Amino acid sequence: MLRRLLVTALLLIPVFAAAQKHPFTFDDLMKLKRIGDFTVSPDGRWVAFSATDVSLEANTRKSHLWIVPLGIAPSAGGDARRLTAEGEGTEERLRFSPDGSRVLYTAVRKGVSQIYVQGFDGATGKLTGEPRPLTNLSTEADGGLWSPDGKQILFVSGVWPQCKDDACNKAKDDAVASSKVKAKIFDHLMYRHWDAFDSGKRSHLFLASVDCGGAVCAARDLTPGNHDVPPFSLGGQDQYQFSPDGKEVAFTSNLDEVQATSTNDDVFILSLTDPAAKPVNLTAENHGSDSTPMYSPDGKWIAIRSQFRGGYESDRFRLRLIDRERFEQSANSCGGADRKGGSCKKVSYITNLTENFDRWVDSMGWAPDSKSLYITAGNEGESPVYVLSVSGGEPKLIAHGSNDSPTPTADGKMIVFSRSSVRFPAELIAVSPATGRETQLTHLNDAVLSQVQMQPSEPFWFTGAKGEKVQGFMVKPPNFDPSKKYPLKYILHGGPEVPVGDEWTYRWNSNLFASPGYVVIEINFHGSPGYGQKFVDSINGDWGGAPFQDLMLGLDYAEKSFPFIDKDRECALGASYGGFMANWILGHTDRFKCIVSHDGMFNTASAYGETEELWFNEWEFKGTPWSNPEMYRRWSPSESAAKFNTPMLVVHGQLDYRLDVAEGFQLFTTLQRRGVPSRMLYFPDEGHWVSKPQNSQLWYKTVGEWVDWFIGTPGRHPKEAPPEQ
Questions:
Q1: Partners of 589 in the beta sheet?
Q2: How far apart (Å, rounded) are the C-alpha atoms in residues 191 and 360?
Q3: Which residues, listed in sequence order, are joined to residue 456 by a DSSP beta bridge?
Q4: What SS3 string covers 87-119?
Q5: Three-class secondary structure of residue 439 per DSSP
Q6: Distance from C-alpha of 429 to C-alpha of 49, rounded to nearest angstrom
Q7: In sequence order, what are the residues at sequence separation of 6 or more whose Cβ sits closer than 8 angstroms to the Cβ of residue 359?
């Protein structure tokens, strides 16, 4: 499998003479176009997608629409072209009308997001006419979807739940904006989330007609009330969809009153033929998460992703099928009195297709004949594409690599998906399920990558904690010479249930870390997905146990197996859970010459009181600080402060509400009072991630200089303070 993966990946980027290339730089990183959402035209001739351009000078990221022919193998450099005209705004999330004659997309004009419709010429792959706004809400709009007959659209807008029209929403927004009092009053948890405080507004699903004589059509709020539809998400596939006959919609929502302790998303359906209809819960029997409803083309099934353990965001994501006809039979067997689904047990209507598939189902797409689904699932550092029959059985491998969002063409002859690697950001790929032949559709970054030395990710295995096999990955520096000694950057991944492997990232880019002359190693320690759910669960209540042992045993293996690693020049770097592990390492070993801790947990008890998604801490530490104080003390890096000696760079953002900035301040204060060489990089305008281009530039510069100072040159003493900046 590894050999196939490497060969396939090699085919996806051009081969250029090494002499023409230079080590990867931050400027190169900023020049790359970032492919996002994509969709296939109904006739299967075109793939439209969004791509983001970054301007370091302007400190902006702007998304625009592109298109590429699907039936033509692109030449080197690609046949993709910009679809929308140059302008000051941004465009994203294009969707073709069912007949392919029009498109809708989200556009931001003068800072306001609305949904626009425009003509499309399927013969030339060009937009026609002028874009016309379909929405004109003061609360803005996004996420447009066509109805099967092309006469209506679904979209999402953030509204005040007590308002019944846009005039009310605008009045409340204006009142908030003009008020000189900025104080907030809370009467519930989840009063802030990730990087923003709760404004009181909720995401609702709206239905609107497309044609109203040239005017903007009025929109109907399908999901009024004090709940988000869809719930907050960090990405992924749509959480709502029309049924193929257009008579109902399916969507995801979480109705639990205490959102801070609940992962209980449910899938609902709502009839569009009855104006008085209420949403019906299809998944009430499951107290874990049910999401991502996707109708089969024939309308018989709704595929969903499910987790069975409530309160555990890292339970296995299963693929389940809801039989629409059998659900109606189940509801009718109760005389129609109870249609919540879970209460009527006379007819079983949900099938678990991945009962014996011990991997997470990350994304999915229906085959046009409704007899199978294409899925991606993390496995040992990659995310292959599989096909899975609705009748059950083992998934069949379709394509290796780190892939996402498999989307079949209407005739089923091709499947389109995105793929990335440590050597290139996401590009669009098409594969024939019949022959397995792959075609790279986009080549947006060939001009940049042709000038850069990008090193592959080299996997290795070793015996880790509990005597179990653990996988690591290594990226060597450019112009690598095995006879030389190289310093090591030891990267500690986050999550903790977010694995590493052969995939691209802009925030902790392995090739950028390696380019100044470092070996980079990452370990998928116990707790990482892609190796079975038992391996994932093993980190629960054992944050500094098996994962720390894996990291130390992995480093032992690397030092012994790769003689080009200079074991006297090693630095550990991590963010989020990786930041926790960096802090844990600080108090439990002196083998590193320096450490970088980004947004890490320092004091487990205080972190509980500062965070918002309480289910996470309560699951991982098996209770609260008052119900299980020993567990919190046991895994708190702050308890080992007396042993802190290794120089550390602390990084934290003011807007990080997952791990509050107080964790970084506590850590830095402790280091300074202990007399440990330390420095803090503080971002007043960033959250859990550093996203602004110029902030990212400063982050890479500061982290790089810190590591260079302690291990970049042999002979440096770890107690020496870095030079003043």
A1: none
A2: 30
A3: none
A4: CCCEEEEEEECCCCCEEEEEEEECCEEEEEEEE
A5: strand
A6: 12
A7: 316, 377, 378, 379, 529, 530, 532
Question: Could you tell me the domains of the chain?
Answer: 1-31+358-444 (2.120.10.30), 227-352 (no CATH), 457-712 (3.40.50.1820)
Angle at 663 between CA 662 and CA 668, to 5 degrees: 95
Region of residue 246 (phi > 0: left; psi between -120 and 50: alpha; otherwise: beta): left
- Assessment of whether the complete model's pTM goes beyond 0.85: yes
Residues 6+ apart with CB under 8 A from 713: none
Give the number of other Cβ atoms within 10 Å of residue 641's Cβ: 20
What tens digit of pLDDT does each residue of 483-506 get? 999 999 999 999 998 999 999 999
Largest CA distance in the chain: 81
Question: How many CA atoms are closer than 13 Å to the CA of 465, on its beta-carbon side?
Answer: 19
Tell me which residue of 417, 397, 148, 430 sits closest to 295, measured CA to CA: 148
Report whether 157 contacts 140 (CB < 8 A). Answer: yes
Q: What is the rounded distance in angstroms from the CA atom of residue 125 to the CA atom of residue 453?
A: 35
- Give 486-522 as a DSSP string: EEEEEEE-STTT---SS---SSS-HHHHHTTT-EEEE
Could you tell me the two tokens for 400?
């290796």
How many Cβ atoms sit within 10 Å of the Cβ of residue 165?
12
CB-based contact 663:671 (threshold 8 Å): no
231 preceded by cis ω (within 30°)? no
What are the tens digits of pLDDT across the range 338-395?
444 444 455 689 999 999 999 999 999 999 999 999 999 999 999 999 999 999 899 9
What CA–CA distance (Å, rounded) separates 261 from 613? 7
Q: Please name the residue that has the structure tokens 């379909």.
A: 134
Please write the tens of the pLDDT for every residue from 22-76.
999 999 999 999 999 999 999 999 999 999 999 999 999 999 999 999 975 444 3
DSSP state for residue 674 in the 8-state scheme: H
Burial of 110 (0-12, 13-18, 19+ CB in 10 A): exposed
CA dihedral 573, 579, 583, 585 (to 10 degrees): -50
Tokens found for residue 567 = 């074991």
CB neighbours of 205 closer than 8 A, spacing ≥ 6? 154, 155, 156, 221, 222, 223, 229, 230, 240, 249, 251
